[in-house]
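Following up on my earlier message about S-adenosylmethionine. Here are the inputs again, as you asked, copied directly from the submission form:
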Amino acid sequence: MSCLREYLARRLEDWELRILPGSYDIVGDIAIIRIPNALRHRAEEIAKAIMEINSHVRTVLNQVSPVSGSFRLRRLEWIMGDKRTVTIHREYGCLFKVDLEKCYFSPRLSYERYRVAELVRPSETVINMFAGVGCFSILIAKRSKADKVYSIDLNPWAIKYAIENIRLNRVEHVVEAILGDAKTIIKERLLETADRVLMPLPEKAYEYLDYAIDALKPNGGMIHYYDFTHAGRNEDPICKVKEKISRKLNKFGIDFKVEFGRIVRTVGPRWFQVVLDVRVNKRIKRADL
Ligand SMILES: C[S@@+](CC[C@H](N)C(=O)[O-])C[C@H]1O[C@@H](n2cnc3c(N)ncnc32)[C@H](O)[C@@H]1O
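Thanks, got it. Here's what our run produced:
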C-alpha cells in the first residue's frame, strides 16, 4: 500500500505527491481513500493506480466526510470500478458482509478484535454494547468456547448485516444480534448477565460505563473500555484514560484493576484511541476496603 506514492511518482507533480494520502483502507474488494480537495482532479489516476497495485480491488471510493453521527457513518463518493458499497471482508477466518455507506466498519481494528477474542475463556457470556455488523462478536464465537455473545447496535442496517454475518459464519448457536440502545437493552433484559463487556465506541463508552458495570454478573468481570484522548509530548495517553475512568469508578465505590492498556491507533496529531481492560470486582465495595 505504501507504494502508491512511488507508483505515481512520474505521473503526479511534486506538490501533488506531497499531499497524496500516505495510506488507504481495503475492505473486501473495495478501496477507500481520502483525496484532498486540491487533488480531486487526479482522483481517477489515483484510483487506477490503487486498482493496479491491488489486483483484487474492484471499486475505489473517496471518503468525503469524517465518520460522524450516532451510527458512525461517512460519506463516500464513487471514483472507479463497480458502482457499489457492499462487500465481504475476510478477517482471521471470518467473513463480514458490510454496506460501507450504511454501517461502520474499519479494517484497522482487526488486531484489536483478535486480541479480545483470544482473551475469552470457555463458557463465558459476553455483551458487545456497540457491535456494528458483528465483527468482535463473531470472531469471539469462532475463536473461543464462549456460551453466548449478545451483539447490540442502534443502527438497523448494522443489525441486518450482523444477522447475515452470524449465518454466514455459522455461529447462530452463540451470537444473538439485538437492535436497540445498549443502555435500554441492558436495563430491560441483560442486567447481571455478562462475564465480559465490550464497549468499542470511544465517543460513548464513558457515558455508558455504569451500564457496562450493571451488565456484569454479581461477582463482576472484565470490561474492554475504549476512549479517545489527546496527549502532549510528556504525557502518556494510557495513563490519561486510566485516570479519567478511575475518577468515575472511585466515585461509584467500585473495586477495579486496570489489567492492561494499549494505544489501538493514532487518530490525529497527538490524538489516540486507547483501550483499557478493566477487571471489576462487584463483591467488594471501596468503602469496605
Ligand atoms: C465504532 S462502531 C463499532 C465497531 C464494531 N465494534 C466493529 O468492530 O466493527 C460503533 C457502533 O455503535 C453503534 N451505536 C451508537 N450508539 C449506540 C447505542 N447507544 N447503543 C448501541 N449501539 C450504538 C453505531 O451504530 C456503530 O455501529
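One observation from looking it over: The longest strand covers residues 254-268. Hope that helps, and feel free to reply on this thread.
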